[in-house]
Design brief:
2 domains, globular, Immunoglobulin-like, 5 helices, mainly beta, Maltoporin, Chain A, 5-stranded mixed beta sheet
């Protein structure tokens, strides 16, 4: 019945669409600046009709079903003078125009962050700290736009970041969080508007809602220099920033509704308006509500999301931005399935969907609040000052079961039997960051042009965790039906564990431009870290200096060659004592060399970037064990970890109505000279090969005009789910001296179709159409989660 309704709805819409297409028009064109450089994210809007579009990476826009007649077209872009033009549209014709905007010197917002505005991601300045164009960056940067998120129907961070080469899912921890991996790093930091939400140094990640996302920015390489130490946000593997939506100084809005497989229901809204005639204030509010079941029995989720924001241009030199977002998410943790053999044999059980390892009442509830206040003041044409404070608070409670192999499983071989325990936990995680940046640009000393940033920052974390007692409930056989009736046990909270951490930093960055062919990048970062844990001094403390050196050579206008050297220092456990009980273990330092090129072809219609990297992590340490395998409280040197590889990315507009993104990454990662890890063995979940691709085609002419079709593919190669160790590691439930199995590689293929009728946009999403089976895993923690099977959803969006 549901399928028939969808087919009927599509038939009716197609019929209406053909009649509208005969009378209405298509309006296309580009928006450029005074130098004819395309502007990304400019708004082209027919206000009395309530329809419009934002320009893509090439400054192009496309508005369908414009009624015949004369209409006022409003074109706006932050930092440029708004243009209003009366345009007459004859019925049934396609019109193409170019709008050239002039810079508005009175609107002093950071419009020169990336020079070539076709790549001007929102809020990347909170990470990079310095206003550089994309072609001046000496690092690999991937930006996933709000348009791509909408076209693909992305609802999770995992589905978004796989559009960047070499970036993917580390683990979902039972579909309760989103942990990201890049360049062989376990759980790289994920921040929202520059502030961490989950303080776990291993980057456990957190849940977010895509309704409030403007762009997702993935910064690798030398991004660490601006973010501090490696056990904080300065991960050499990279950092992911989720930039939320803010007002664009237009009156607009839309409402949407999406429904799909497993009872998914998701209404959304997004409204924004200008508060006064002088366009000094603007407000925006968007939100979503969602509930859904799952292909697995007893598993469900529900959530509500709100994201208000406000911008006030107090005068011609000052702007103030205030925003926050709130997410309430409640869901069932799901361990997924199990491996029916020793860690050396790949024999993952395809758990039937009507079988669930947990209890029907298992639940995790997460409440997350993030907020940002930023003031930007222009001092003169060369200097500006930016002050910002961002904070977050996350409260997470979890009560449920966890299934583990029996202790004697290596002797009995009964890997189908699992011991189920019941417990609870609560995490209250608060984080904040305060930044002051003095920014200089276009300062000349002779023939050298200087762009610099002098900044200071203060970060803090206040974490309290409470765990209950653990009660062993029963033993289940995964090959047989499993009882999911919750046990009648008493859980008692233990004593709270509180830890606080404080980090101070100073940063100096400078880009020197020497003529049209040479740029030199210099940076120096000082970081100091201290903290306490239950009134004891934390071992994650100390102070370090980390340098940045880089060079960019431009042999021709469309080719940039770059190379950089950075160090990233991790102070985690730096004060731990070695086995002699006198010598501190010291900091671990990562030395990173990165080189590559960034090119643009066919009048900037295609971009091809290539990056090679080599990262060496020195002075690793791990806990020393006694003969009984117990932790002695002291540490030994654990060798080095080397990561090297290549990342390739091709993006562009192959045709005026076809966008394409293709990426590939190769990674060689392994431990060396280690008494803990076998020589050359790879870190867990490290795939040597990954690839991604996305093509979207929109019909501008003919009977199919306003129809868009998209296809995406995502490949993850084989990878070890555990480490290859010589001995048992504390807290690591893996078998020593057992070469871990390699999980099979898999490819996911998604399809999308969209059709616009006046203010209405209908989209259909077919995900994993080949029904391929892959897994995400935190294996040593007992999580082995299958990818979602084939599913479908339909979305309807109406512009107000």
């Amino acid at each position: 019945m549901k399928k028939k309704l969808v087919i009927l709805l599509m038939s009716l819409l197609a019929g209406f669409g053909e009649s509208f297409s005969q009378e209405n028009n298509i309006f296309t064109g580009t928006v450029v600046d005074e130098e004819n450089q395309e502007l990304t994210g400019a708004t082209v809007y027919l206000e009395e009709l309530g329809i419009g579009d934002d320009t893509d990476a090439y400054g192009a826009f496309h508005i369908g079903n414009v009624p015949g007649g004369t209409h006022a077209v409003v074109v706006s872009y932050v930092g440029y003078k708004q243009v209003t033009r009366e345009i007459t549209f004859p019925r049934g014709e396609t019109r193409q125009d170019t709008f050239q905007l002039e810079r508005d010197e009175q609107v002093l917002v950071e419009v020169e962050v990336f020079g070539r505005r076709r790549e001007r991601p929102e809020k990347m300045d909170v990470l990079l700290r310095i206003p550089l164009r994309m072609d001046e960056q000496i690092q690999s940067i991937s930006v996933i736009s709000q348009k791509m998120l909408t076209d693909q129907g992305v609802l999770t961070l995992h589905d978004a970041v796989r559009n960047a080469p070499g970036v993917g899912t580390f683990a979902t921890f039972g579909n309760t969080t989103e942990s990201i991996t890049s360049r062989g790093y376990r759980g790289i930091p994920v921040v929202k508007n520059g502030v961490r939400v989950h303080s776990d140094f291993r980057g456990t990640g957190f849940l977010t809602d895509m309704q409030g996302v403007e762009t997702i920015q993935i910064l690798r390489g030398s991004a660490a220099i601006a973010q501090g130490v490696g056990n904080d946000l300065g991960s050499a593997g990279g950092v992911v920033n989720i930039a939320t939506k803010t007002p664009r100084f237009i009156n607009a809005g839309n409402v949407g509704f999406r429904t799909g497989s497993w009872g998914q229901v998701r209404p959304t809204f997004d409204v924004q308006f200008v508060g006064d005639r002088l366009q000094r204030t603007a407000f925006r509010l968007n939100g979503a509500w969602e509930r859904a079941d799952n292909y697995r029995v007893f598993v469900s989720k529900d959530r509500i999301y709100l994201n208000p924001s406000f911008i006030w241009r107090t005068d011609n030199k000052t702007s103030i931005t205030l925003e926050m977002d709130y997410l309430h998410d409640a869901r069932t943790p799901d361990q997924g399935t199990v491996n029916l053999n020793a860690d050396s044999v790949w024999n993952v059980y395809k758990m039937p969907h009507d079988r669930f390892l947990g209890f029907s009442t298992d639940r995790q509830t997460t409440n997350t609040l993030t907020y940002l206040a930023q003031v930007h003041r222009t001092v003169n044409e060369h200097l500006s000052l930016r002050v910002s404070y961002a904070g977050s608070g996350m409260n997470q409670t979890k009560i449920g079961s966890h299934a583990s192999p029996l202790r004697n499983v290596t002797q009995t071989g009964l890997y189908n039997l699992r011991s189920r325990a019941y417990s609870g936990s609560e995490r209250d995680d608060k984080n904040g960051v305060f930044q002051i940046d003095l920014i200089g640009k276009n300062l000349l000393t002779g023939m050298v042009k200087h762009t610099f940033n002098l900044g200071i920052d203060y970060r803090w974390t206040d974490l309290t965790t409470v765990n209950t007692n653990t009660v062993t409930v029963d033993t289940v056989d995964v090959l047989q039906p499993i009882s999911n009736t919750a046990p009648n046990v008493s859980l008692i909270n233990g004593d709270p564990v509180r830890s606080r951490e404080y980090a101070y930093g100073m940063l100096l960055q400078e880009l020197m431009t020497v003529g049209p062919h040479l740029k030199l990048s210099l940076g120096l970062r000082y970081s100091q870290l201290s903290g306490t844990s239950n009134n004891s001094i934390s071992t994650n403390g100390g102070s370090v200096w980390d340098p940045l050196l880089g060079i960019i050579v431009t042999p021709s206008q469309n080719i940039n060659l770059f190379a950089s050297y950075t160090t990233t220092t991790s102070l985690r456990g730096a004060a731990n004592l070695l086995e002699d009980r006198l010598t501190p273990a010291g900091a671990s330092r990562e030395k990173q060399v990165e080189a590559g090129f960034k090119t643009e072809w066919f009048q900037n219609r295609l971009r091809f970037n290539a990056t090679l990297f080599h990262i060496r992590n020195n002075n690793l340490t791990y806990a020393a064990l006694n003969e009984a395998g117990s932790n002695t409280g002291y540490y030994i040197k654990a060798g080095n970890l080397k990561r090297q590889g290549v990342e390739l990315e091709l993006t562009g507009k192959v045709l005026k109505n076809m966008d394409a993104v293709v990426g590939y990454a190769y990674l060689d990662a392994g431990y060396h000279d280690s008494p803990y890890y076998h020589e050359g063995s790879a870190p867990m979940n490290t795939a040597a090969h990954t690839a991604n691709g996305w093509v979207n085609y929109t019909f501008f002419e003919g009977p199919l005009r306003d129809l868009s079709l998209g296809v995406g593919f995502y490949y993850t190669g084989e990878r070890p789910f555990a480490e290859y160790t010589y001995q048992v590691l504390p807290g690591h439930q893996v078998q020593p001296n057992t070469r871990p199995f390699l999980a099979d590689g898999y490819t996911t293929v998604n399809l999308q179709a969209g059709y616009r009728i006046n203010r209405c946009q209908l989209r259909i999403f077919l995900n994993n159409i080949l029904d391929s089976q892959g897994y995400t895993s935190y294996y040593r923690g007992g999580y082995l989660n299958p990818t979602d099977p084939r599913n479908v959803s339909v979305g309807l969006n109406w512009q107000l």
